[in-house]
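So, can you check?
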Amino acid sequence: MSRETPSVSHIICLVGPTGSGKTAAALHIACSLAQSGFPTSIINADSRQIYQDFPIITAQPTQEERTQCPHLLYGFLPTDQKSSAGKWMDSARTTVAEVTAQGRFPLLVGGTGLYIRALLDGMADIPAPDAAVSTRLQEQCRMEGPLPLHARLSGIDPVYAARIHPHDRQRVIRALEVWESTGRTFSWWHEHAVSPVPETTVLRLGMGLPLRELAPLLSKRINAMLDAGAMDEARSALKAYPELSLPGWSGIGCRELGKALTGQLPLAEAMELWQKNTRAYAKRQWTWFRADPRITWFRPDDPAAYRNMTKLALAFLQGKPSGS
């Protein structure tokens, strides 16, 4: 099938809550598009799947899945290195450009709404926080835990506080750093976002279920991770990075298993907390993405979902839909 060389103006984006089947759906779309003459590369847009030490716990595509089409920005960051929406956006912009230059089409896949919004809708140029402020907040979090800081953030910026987990140390501290350093809330900066990826037409697809239907699938998924070696993975990471406050340990499942392995929590309690935190995260993701009217939604239990998503994607690349 003949086609024009792609430009950065065409991006397909597949979003949805954790455990909703985005990885399998994306692989099906990518392979189907390739068979139709539109070679596609999958680009990670999940803030936890960037860490190289937790491929099982963060549900990164398997090596077998990655052989079927290029998978980019997965598992490249060590546990002790910190990322951010801005850093990921810079990497993603470069990756999208490189994929396009190769004559391929980028398919963004992930559940980190802030990352996706930064790339596709723009991100405010937030000034670097004051070093003294950062040090003080880090120490306070170390001494008191993240909950008091999150409670404070809820009074300052309730919109953003509701979108992040109270135990997400990295994001709680970052939001307070911004407030104390700039006098503006994180929500204000997001509302004044600038510089999205230029001249972009986006097809936004969503895969998901309401939490009441998704919850049993999440439980099965966690059990499958344990069967696949999640505990050994966490044990190996702990030998290399014993400090659980490091950025890579902040992923749901990572910290809970880390606490179980270091004796801070009984294993049963850690598993219960992993389940609880996963459900809470999925609920926040569902709320975030469902607020975007540009997303066309599909259910993972719909046997026609893959076919219909691929049909939309193919028409989009052929220039038929208007995109967003």
About this structure: The domain at 10-123+193-317 is CATH 3.40.50.300 (Rossmann fold). The mean pLDDT is 91. Strands lie at 10-15, 40-44, 71-72, 105-110, 201-207, 296-298.
